[in-house]
Amino acid sequence: MGEIGKLGFGFMRLPLIERDGEQIIDIEQAKQMVDIFMEAGFTYFDTARGYHLGKSEGALKEALVDRYPRESFQIASKLPAWASKGADHSRAMFDKSLRETGAGYFDFFLMHNMGEGRTKAFDEQGIWDFLFEKKDAGLIRNLGLSFHDKADVFAEVLDSHPPVDFVQLQINYADWENSLVESRKCYEVARERNLPVIVMEPVKGGSLVRLPAAATDVLRAANPDVSIASWGLRFAASLPGVLTVLSGMSTPDQVRDNVKTMTELGPLTEDERAALEQVRAILAAIPTVPCTSCQYCVEGCPEGINIPVVLNALNVVTLFDDKAMASNEYDWRTADARASSCIECGACENACPQHIAIIDELKRAVELFEKNPA
């Protein structure tokens, strides 16, 4: 496995535009973002079958694959066996991903979102053997898995299956000692097995950019010349064994800032690490909903509720004491399906990597934004 740049481009939160009353990916802006990224010397792109409701892989083809020589970049995609209708469907997902990206082969390919009850689908459907066959056929260069669960479960999955080439883990300074996510412990499991780590959610779905004022003040005092987002990227990139750090960028300015962070700034200093410890203490004192906006709950919701939007609105109230702003976001972004549409089927909670009691949180949102609006 060769060296790649420390910054990876996640095609999970691309810019959107409205066309014919529908929100679609802004391909022209995505092309601009890809160009900025590539011109800075970064080459790793991460997508998945389900990102942007199945449109991410096609967008990657249009913005990157059709415009650059194939050997000039690396593509990673993923297969979510737990979301399929069975083995044949999962196998067809791989073929569709290969076709829609136009990549010809995958530099990196992952078994997507393992952990909890989701792992068994990969075993029951024979997906491990299937993907190793694809690797032997040259359609996968490096095979790995992404994981959301406790560290002991992670170790069991790794030790009871054929060796993979790498793993993808949720790592950020807020979740480093989180008892649900266990970022540090999962990272240590990977390091003990000499597995390269690709980091996802280094700014926790954008949450670590929207810090409380007290936390922001700490970081500004420690280094006033860098962005708040840069702290999350550098924390993850400073860890030994990290292959690249993914960022789900949504604007050209975000790409420019992240590129600057990874090209001009080095590893965290001891003083900067101490500042992050202060921030962790501040965050730990504030009870919030730990949503990273991965969208897994949305994909399985029969009512089509945009659950991450609802949870974010709740967190805006908690962190910023701004019910008016939170209510505005809730009103326009949940117009098609309010939290009160929930039928309490539990599909969202079964899919949630963060173990959130989503049904209870939706009830709280109904009380806050629908029954008692700002």
Q: What does the model show?
A:
This protein has 374 residues and is α/β, with parallel strands linked by helices. It has two domains: 7-284, TIM Barrel (Alpha-Beta Barrel); 296-371, no CATH class. Helix content is 45%, strand content 14%. It contains 16 helices and ten strands. An eight-stranded parallel beta barrel has the order 1-4-5-6-7-8-9-10, surrounded by five helices. α7 links the parallel β8 and β9. α1 (27-39) runs parallel beside α10, α6 runs parallel beside α7 (183-192) and α13 packs antiparallel against α14 (323-333). The chain is globular, with a radius of gyration of 20 Å.
Q: Any chance you could write out the topology, listing elements then pairs?
A:
Layout: E1 7-10, E2 16-19, E3 22-25, H1 27-39, E4 44-46, H2 56-65, E5 74-79, H3 87-101, E6 106-114, H4 119-124, H5 127-136, E7 140-147, H6 151-159, E8 166-170, H7 183-192, E9 197-200, H8 213-222, H9 228-237, E10 242-247, H10 252-264, H11 270-284, H12 296-300, H13 307-320, H14 323-333, H15 347-351, H16 358-371
Parallel strand pairs: 1-4, 1-10, 4-5, 5-6, 6-7, 7-8, 8-9, 9-10
Antiparallel strand pairs: 2-3
Helix pairs in contact: 1-2, 1-10, 6-7, 8-11, 9-10, 13-14, 13-16
